[in-house]
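Problem 12. The chain below contains 75 residues. Write out its predicted structure in token notation.
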Amino acid sequence: PVTVAADNASKVYGTPDPALTFSAAGLVNGDVLAGALARAPGETVPGSPYAITQGTVADVNNPNYAIAFTPGALT
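Solution.
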């Protein structure tokens, strides 16, 4: 098993989204997880924070690991 936690992020209204990053605990032998995080759609300040979700950083794309995911927030 590996624990993946999305890093919280922020941006200024009207600017591009920052890169969505995560930390992973439990990887062995220098492994790197495949896939990318996603975020809930939306662009308004009152709608913030937007959930940062697992996206494609999933078991199916990383067959050597069972992934436990902790979401983050984009404000």
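Discussion. The chain has a mean pLDDT of 95. Students who got a different answer should revisit the alignment rule from Section 12.3.
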